[in-house]
Amino acid sequence: MQKQISVSGIQPTGTLHIGNYLGMLKGAVDLQNSGQYDCFYFIVDLHSLTGEFKAEEKRQQILEVAAGCLAAGLDPKQSTLFIQSHVPAHTELGWILNTITPMGELSRMTQYKDKADRMENNVGLFTYPVLMAADIFLYNASVVPVGDDQDQHVELARTIARKFNGRFGQTFVEPKAVHTTTPRVMSLDNPERKMSKSLPAGCIFIDDAPEVIKKKVMSAVTDSGSEVKYDPTNKPGVSNLLEITSALSGKEILELEILFTGKQYGEFKSYVAQVITDYFAPIRERKAKLLKNPEKVLKIFAAGSAKANKIAEKKLAEVYEKVGLI
Ligand code: AQP
Questions:
Q1: Per-residue DSSP letters for 155-179?
Q2: How far is the CA of 294 from the centre of ligand 1 (A)?
Q3: What's the pLDDT tens digit per position in 86-117?
Q4: Burial degree of 69 (CB within 10 A; 0-12, 13-18, 19+)
Q5: Distance, CA 42 to ligand 1 centroid (Å)?
Q6: pLDDT category of residue 129 using cuts at 50, 70 and 90
Q7: Within the chain, how many helices (H) and strands (E) appear?
Q8: In a designed cystine with 197, which of 14, 62, 79, 208 is the match (CB 3.0 to 4.6 A)?
Q9: For residue 106, what is the enclosing H or E element?
């Protein structure tokens, strides 16, 4: 039986944080390890150029994220791991999709509106979801493990697939976003915003040292009152810490609430810091080891890129034929 295909990307914009891990990477690794999917996971370096960046830092950021993905459990023996810009079919298909994507659909994207408000606006930021649709379509993916901030983009990919298929005949699979139990990890310094690499003050990175984790968690914004209670509306800070801790410890949120009944936030936060530290200790160790040998990391991704190219080129040829290019 043909396996379903899972595709997802991660931007090399900084060190991976626990939001990336819990919202996407952990889910991607689980799909990979289930043995039921052919998985394609890649570093979306082209997407990352839509934000502010320094050329001299980009190479290191790509390496950082590549090592982070491997350390977190993505396995080149089970998944095709590659770098987006090494597979030119992504941008080529992206262009074709640009020509059938309505401006109105793109203008509704909340991530675009949010980013255009807080950073220098550029056309790439606007057409980002079109390139993302190309990323997904090239591998005929039916599932896309992502955080819920990407749901609207995956929904748009479905719309683009339907539009293309309607006009040129069945070509693209309509993908579906799939989530972990923590599809949106909030920032520690502002629990109203999602944790983002581009807002590092509220992030715990996957390789933060234990003392750094402790300091960040102890100073995380919590809420008035002192009860450790799950209530995302009135207690977003505490609820965020409860969700993180539940996902990493395997304990139910109710179990954690009971454990901290009558106790203060300080005691709860010490526990949270310890859970995070223990969970990420082996990942931190593996990542440090991988970064000692950057050539080996790049070689893994180069081999994956060669494999991805073969598949992507075939799909692109099918698309070119459908639209009448020769
Ligand atoms: N806070 C989060 N909670 C759950 N999932 C998250 N993801 C990102 N943040 C959270 C998911 O991680 C995958 C890769 O994300 P990305 O590299 O595209 O973007 P980012 O971490 O959000 O980094 P940026 O781009 O520096 O920050 P912003 O948000 O400012 O653009 C995706 O599946 C994402 O859903």
A1: HHHHHHHHHHHHHH-S-----EEE-
A2: 24
A3: 999 999 999 999 999 999 999 999 999 988 88
A4: buried
A5: 14
A6: very high
A7: 14, 5
A8: 14
A9: helix 103-107
Tokens of 203: 């992030």
How far apart CA 220 and CA 159 sit, in angstroms, is 39
Any residues with Cβ below 6 Å from ligand 1, and which?
10-11, 13, 19-20, 23-24, 146-147, 149-150, 183-185, 194-198
- 200: CB partners within 8 A, 6+ apart: 14
- Ligand 1: nearest atom to the Cα of 11: 17
Determine the atom of ligand 1 nearest the C-alpha atom of 9: 14
Encode pLDDT of 47-68 as tens digits: 999 999 999 999 999 999 999 9
Query: Is a pLDDT exceeding 90 seen at residue 119?
Result: no
Alpha-carbon gap, residue 50 to 42, rounded angstroms: 17
- Of the two residues 152 and 119, the one the predictor is more confident about is 152
- Examine the pLDDT at 241 and tell me if it is beyond 80: yes
271 φ/ψ angles, rounded to the nearest 5 degrees: -65, -45
> Running DSSP on this structure, what letter comes out for residue 233?
T
**Predicted local confidence at residue 121, as pLDDT:** 87
Give the tokens for residue 270: 């010490």
219 C-alpha vs ligand 1 centroid, how far in Å? 22
Query: What one-character DSSP code corresponds to residue 13?
Result: S
Nearest ligand 1 atom, CA 197: 26
Calculate how far, in angstroms, residue 207's C-alpha sits from the geometric centre of ligand 1: 17
Mean pLDDT of 5-30: 97
Q: pLDDT class for 199, splitting at 50, 70, 90?
A: confident
Place of tokens 């034929």: 321
Residue reference for tokens 């339907």: 162
Shortest-distance Cα residue to atom 8 of ligand 1: 20
Q: Which of 196, 199, 204 to mutate to test the pocket of ligand 1 (most atoms within 8 A of CB)?
A: 196
CA dist 184 and 105 (Å) reads: 24
pLDDT for 197 equals: 82
